[in-house]
Design brief:
heterodimer, A: 336 residues, alpha+beta, Immunoglobulin-like, 2 domains, 5-stranded mixed β-sheet, 14 strands, B: 803 residues, mainly alpha, Cytochrome C Oxidase, Chain A, 4 domains, 68% helix
């Protein structure tokens, strides 16, 4: 067998590497900062691109000059002492002023956009949402619609939204990259984000300020919908949860007599406020702030042993048997 | 070189020629301390590197299961804290210690024992921090330790205690070392070495020392607040009591951003030595390089809030910090261009140190340019706390700091050991490190751009982050292998490296003028200085080839005197760390530690009197070392009290419950105590004058009087505190109580220290050991005392007089 790789093999490996490289560099991931889904993200991306290109060109220039120097001025044997040049005032002034001018090109749109995205008054018809960052989940309250939900934020496309950020415990940061930049949720301070979603679709988000054990498990989803769909979703949220039957009814009884009620609200059943509102839990796609798909099996595993599944989670072990857990899961996932 | 007559005299008996362990424990030789710093820091670099490798293994795949969430959080906290405070800073300090005296033509630093003390505090503080692993409680709040996550409510265990105590200990070490080096550089330069003739490395080091002295007080105060919150129930970071969580962020980053320059400027200095040497050309635009370094340091204090663009400071603050941050790119760019121009037209010898220096120019350019990207707040909101930023600062701190350190290490290795490193192995190590580094961190720009946040121990497969995380992990092992090759090369060189000779690189600066390794006293004769590249000038002449007329060697008329070794530095450091352990375990241990600290400090201070240092006490600025050191220290104290007072003012009126200041502050009594303290300053002046005159009676009278007035002030304060407690105001009552007691208590602590100092001087005086030549000791104490009085005037005005 030939131990030296043949030419064609080298070409094939190189091609495979190239494919992997290109394949590895998809830019439209669910949390991409370069696929804007709102006016805020779009304006940011424009500036992002401007600065990226400017800095890339400067970087390339430096590298080309550096490489040229390293090749051209490599010492040859018996080379004489080079000219002992100590400086050149004019050149030094030039490479002080030129970068300053380049920075001006970056600075002007930067300042404009900074004021445009932060200073503006929200439009009158904006949808208001209070976002609360808890260790380690998100609460969304729509004060004008009287809707409370968790971890999945529904927004209508094309309508301005004001996100008021409130921190009940430690600092978090609300970030949905495709909708724009992050903003910290600081207890005792009032921060907000104003934006208008421009594309329907599901965008992923994630807490971006380290907030303790399960910081990595503090995801969220934003579901941007056509106006009618959003209204339908609101209507579902406002309706009383469907009365369970069979296993689910058993689950409801277990829920009602367990520690669950101390922290969770289910309309008509309990009024806890320390954990996510579960009134329409079954309508959510993900469980435990974006950790797993919201299936009955996953929910059963979760209520059986939350401490093992999510590090540091505030939800205690409830001491449920497998059967009880299944019943509770059937009840909860049925709350559409 | 011939040994001058002076060397045969008895003074060299203390010059560190011993070889046992004890000789290293008690050494005050700047070169040995430099080696201790280097070895210690390299060990911590390895520890921090292992932490990084575990982090990378965990993230190599989605849903990694190498470690759990809590372990991961501890690993990145310890990785950051270790690399910043225990690896890069002390690696730089190794060069400060070893090289600065050699490069300025001095025989040691200004305060050799203080230098040893800085080192032992660093070592023991670092061990204390890492001991947290042994008890299963490694810090887990991030190296930036954002409050309120770090308060007792959200982090009840000892993890954060380890972190905040260690950082205070390490900060003390850094400030002491910085004061020492400022005095050394300003005061101990060889004759002829004007400021503008100092080598660039010395200049950048000087800027760094000022940054340390001024930037560490704010974080120290922030940590003290955290300590009081955690141990004594104050409310600095308690939102319910009216606390503002931006406070910690400001205090941390007012330190944290200058810290970036503390980490990178020494590397800039090294590169500015290495590139000219191996291009055989002077540094291009040397003066501009100095000014730009100073400017970077200066601007470095005005940009901290660019770390807080997401925190919600409002558009005006965001805009201000965006502009100031962009401005800092200008002097940084000038440095890059001047380095390129230095190499341009040279005859480049591509040695290992040159490889690392040129590598820095390339990699730091990337890190600098990505820094310009986050200077823009809207763009930063998409980048901060993502892997884009992780990539950015590793390009700065590995591509910049570490490459600079490796350039320096391979450049000065022959000088420090007398042996050459293997060039081929060194080049292999460079290329492995260079490739591994870029494979690790360049893809992280991309990962950040597609949304990967920092400090997550796990991620879902659907994010698309898996592929480049895998390769990033592969690259990290390349970095580890590159560092390993460097270590192998170093060990091989120690065993069988060819002898280097005094000047293996055809060097330009004074350190190449003495033997390798240098003798304990560095230079047989203090070298003459003709220009910035003085040694080159001696060898090759100026640009027209004119050599300077050699100045006759002037043997030191008093012989060469080296400082005596001392074991008190390690005793003091032990006392500090024992007290820190006690803070986590038992009060008894705190008291033992404090007793060792106080006893050790007295012994340290009085040792000086028993064994007067023969080292020159005056130099470049014509000011006594101790006086200059006190001025620098007081500059640091200004920032300390400034931060405390600013916090008091910022929190004024934010208390949610009473009692409030106007209900409780007793203006007449405090006016009396203020008058008393002011009068003590007058007595202090009289005491100094009496000591100068040699008037024994008056000097004793006024020294005792000053101390007595200080005691009266403390009595007033004790009365005030007691009456406040009776009226229901304690540290825990409200924000006013917390800020008031901590501010005035700290001032009281300073007065107490001053009284002890004065009484010590009085004791010396009574035993007839405070003659006219010792007046400077009283003068230094007086400077401190007057400063403490002036601070009180500010406190009195802002706290008591303004309603």
């Amino acid at each position: 067998m030939d131990l030296v790789p043949s030419g064609t093999l080298v070409v094939r490996v190189a091609l495979a590497a190239l494919v992997l490289l290109v394949g590895g560099c998809a830019w439209d991931g669910p949390m991409s900062t370069v696929v804007p889904g709102s006016d805020f993200a779009r304006a940011t991306l424009w500036l992002y691109a401007l600065i990226t290109w400017i800095t890339a060109v400067i970087g390339l220039l430096v590298f080309v000059v550096l490489l040229w120097i390293l090749v051209r001025f490599r010492a040859r044997p018996e080379a004489p002492l080079p000219a002992q040049i100590r400086g050149h005032t004019l050149m030094e002034i030039a490479w002080t002023i030129v970068p300053a001018l380049v920075l001006l090109v970056i600075a002007v749109p930067t300042i404009q956009l900074t004021f445009r995205t932060q200073g503006v008054a929200a439009p009158r018809d904006a949808l208001r949402v209070t976002v609360r960052g808890w260790q380690w989940w998100w609460e969304f309250r729509y004060p004008d619609l009287d809707v409370v939900t968790a971890n999945e934020l529904h927004l209508p496309v094309g309508r301005a939204v004001v996100l008021d950020l409130e921190g009940p415990d430690v600092i978090h940061s609300f970030w949905v990259p495709r909708l724009g930049g992050k903003r910290d949720v600081v207890p005792g301070r009032h921060n907000r984000i104003v934006l208008t979603p421009e594309r329907p679709g599901e965008h992923w988000g994630q807490c971006a300020e380290f907030c303790g054990a399960s910081h990595a498990n503090m995801g969220l989803r934003v579901i941007v919908q056509a106006s009618a769909e959003f209204d339908a979703w609101v209507a579902r949220q406002k309706a009383a949860p469907a009365e369970p039957a069979g296993l689910a009814a058993e689950g409801k009884a277990i829920f009602a007599r367990s520690a669950c009620v101390g922290c969770h609200t289910i309309a008509g059943v309990s009024g806890g406020v320390l954990g996510p509102n579960l009134s329409h839990f079954g309508g959510r796609t993900m469980l435990a702030a974006g950790m797993w798909p919201n299936t009955p099996d996953n929910v059963a595993a979760w209520v059986r042993d939350p401490q093992r599944l999510k590090p540091g989670v505030k939800m205690p072990d409830l001491g449920l048997t497998d059967e009880q857990a299944k019943a509770v899961a059937a009840y909860l996932t049925g709350l559409k | 070189m011939a040994i001058p007559h002076a060397l045969r005299q008895h003074e060299l008996v203390h010059a560190g020629e011993g070889t046992g362990v004890w000789s290293w424990v008690t050494t005050v030789d700047h070169k040995r301390i430099g080696i201790l710093y280097g070895v210690t820091a390299f060990a911590f670099l390895v520890i921090g590197g292992i932490e990084a490798l575990i982090i990378r293994l965990q993230l190599a795949r989605p849903h990694g299961a190498v470690v759990g969430a809590e372990t991961f959080n501890a690993l990145f906290t310890m990785h950051g804290t270790t690399m910043v405070f225990l690896a890069i800073m002390p690696l730089n300090a190794a060069f400060f210690n070893y090289m600065i005296p050699l490069m300025i033509g001095a025989r040691d630093v200004a305060f050799p024992r203080l230098n040893a003390l800085s080192y032992w505090i660093l070592l023991l503080g670092g061990l204390f921090l890492n001991a947290s692993f042994l008890v299963g409680a490694p810090p887990n709040g991030g190296w930036f330790g954002y409050a309120n996550l770090t308060t007792r409510q959200f982090s009840p265990g000892p993890e954060i205690d380890f972190w905040m105590l260690s950082l205070q200990i390490l900060g003390a070490s850094s400030i002491m070392a910085a004061v020492n080096f400022i005095v050394t550089i300003l005061n101990m330069r060889a004759p002829g070495m004007t400021l503008m003739r100092m080598p660039l490395f010395v200049w950048m080091s000087l800027v760094v020392q000022f940054l340390i002295v001024l930037a560490f007080p704010p974080i120290t105060v922030g940590l003290i607040f955290l300590m009081f919150d955690r141990f004594f129930g104050t409310h600095f970071y308690d939102v319910a009591a009216g606390g503002d969580l931006h406070l910690w962020q400001h205090l941390f980053w007012i330190f944290g951003h200058p810290e970036v320059y503390i980490l990178i400027l020494p590397a800039f200095g090294i590169v500015s030595e290495v590139l000219p040497t191996f291009s055989r050309k002077p540094l291009f635009g040397g003066q501009v390089m100095i000014y730009s370094g100073v400017l970077i340091g200066f601007f470095g204090f005005g940009v901290w809030s660019h770390h807080m663009f997401a925190a919600g400071m409002g558009p005006v603050a965001d805009a201000f910090f965006a502009i100031s941050t962009m401005l800092i790119a200008i002097p940084t760019g000038v440095k890059i261009f001047n380095w390129l121009a230095t190499m341009w037209g040279g005859t480049i010898r591509a040695t290992v140190p040159f490889h690392y220096a040129a590598g820095l120019v390339a990699l730091f350019t990337i890190g600098g340019l990505s820094g310009v990207m986050h200077a823009s707040p809207p763009v930063d909101l998409q980048q901060t706390d993502t892997y884009f930023v992780v990539a950015h600062f590793h390009y700065v701190l590995i591509g910049g700091s570490l490459f600079g350190i490796l350039a320096g290490a391979s450049y000065w290795w022959p000088k420090m050991t007398g042996r050459l490193l293997d060039e081929r192995l060194g080049r292999l190590g460079f290329w492995v490190l260079f490739a591994g580094f870029n494979l690790t961190f360049f893809p992280q720009h991309y990962l950040g751009a597609i949304g990967m946040p920092r400090r997550i121990y796990t991620y879902a497969a659907g994010t698309g982050w898996g592929f480049w995380n895998f390769w990033s992990t592969v690259g990290a092992f390349g970095i580890a292998f590159g560092v390993f090759l460097f270590a192998v090369n170093a060990l091989l060189s120690l065993r069988r490296g060819p002898p280097a000779g005094a000047d293996p690189w055809d060097g330009r600066t004074l350190e190449w003028r003495t033997s390798s390794p240098p003798p304990p006293h560095d230079f047989d004769e203090i070298p003459p200085v003709y220009s910035r590249d003085s040694f080159w000038r001696e060898k090759y002449g100026d640009s027209r080839g004119r050599k300077p007329t050699p100045r006759p060697a002037a043997p030191d008329p008093h012989g060469i005197h080296m400082p005596a070794p001392s074991h008190w530095p390690i005793v003091i450091a032990l006392g500090i760390v024992v007290a820190a352990v006690g803070a986590l375990t038992s009060l008894a241990l705190v008291l033992i530690g404090a007793a060792v600290l106080v006893g050790g400090s007295f012994a340290f201070a009085l040792e000086h009197h028993r064994n007067p240092a023969h080292v020159r006490q005056e130099g470049g600025l014509g000011v006594d070392h101790r006086k200059l050191a006190m001025w620098v220290f007081l500059g640091s104290e200004c920032f300390l009290f400034g931060t405390l007072i600013a916090t008091y003012m910022a929190y004024k009126g934010r208390s949610v419950v009473g009692p409030h200041p106007h209900e409780i502050l007793n203006l007449p009594i405090t006016t009396l105590s203020t008058f008393d303290l002011l009068m003590s300053s007058l007595l202090m002046v009289l005491a100094l004058a009496a000591v100068r005159r040699g008037d024994r009676f008056q000097s004793r009278l006024w020294l005792a009087g000053t101390a007595f007035f200080g005691l009266i002030f403390l009595g007033f304060q004790a009365y005030e505190f007691t009456s406040f407690v009776h009226e229901g105001l304690t540290l825990q009552t409200n924000l006013f109580g917390s800020t008031f007691f901590v501010l005035t208590g700290f001032h009281g602590g300073h007065v107490t220290l001053g009284v002890i100092w004065l009484l010590t001087l009085l004791g010396l005086d009574l035993r007839g050991r405070l003659g006219t030549p010792d007046a400077v000791k009283v003068e230094v104490a007086g400077l401190y005392w007057h400063f403490v009085d002036v601070v009180w005037i500010v406190i009195f005005t802002l706290v008591y007089l303004i309603p």
